[in-house]
Amino acid sequence: MMMHFNQWGIGGPIVMMIFAALFIGILIYLAIVYSRNSSRHYGREPREEGALEILQKRYARGEINKDEFESIKTSLR
Questions:
Q1: pTM > 0.70: yes or no
Q2: For residues 54 and 61, what is the distance between their CA atoms, to the nearest angstrom?
Q3: Separation CA 4–CA 17 (nearest Å)
Q4: Does residue 32 contact residue 46 with C-beta atoms inside 8 Å?
Q5: pLDDT tens digits, residue range 13-47?
Q6: How far apart are the C-alpha atoms of 18 and 24, rounded to whole Å?
Q7: 65: Cα within 13 Å, side-chain hemisphere
Q8: 3-state SS, residue 1
Q9: Of 2, 12, 14, 76, which sits 20 to 30 A from 44 (CA to CA)?
């Protein structure tokens, strides 16, 4: 029996697999680029705490009393 191939011949399935691999690769690349950019856009990057925020946390934890808090807060401004 003789197999009938279309105009692409025996290379047709190979070309289709290459295009499918390229398409999947492009989708993966775009997903990676999008995930990196979206973290920058929506503020997911950690930021440094300001001195006042650190002071407020120390006061909340009880490391310093109210007088020390007010004194340090005044000197920060």
A1: no
A2: 11
A3: 20
A4: no
A5: 788 899 999 999 999 999 988 887 765 555 555 66
A6: 10
A7: 1
A8: coil
A9: 76
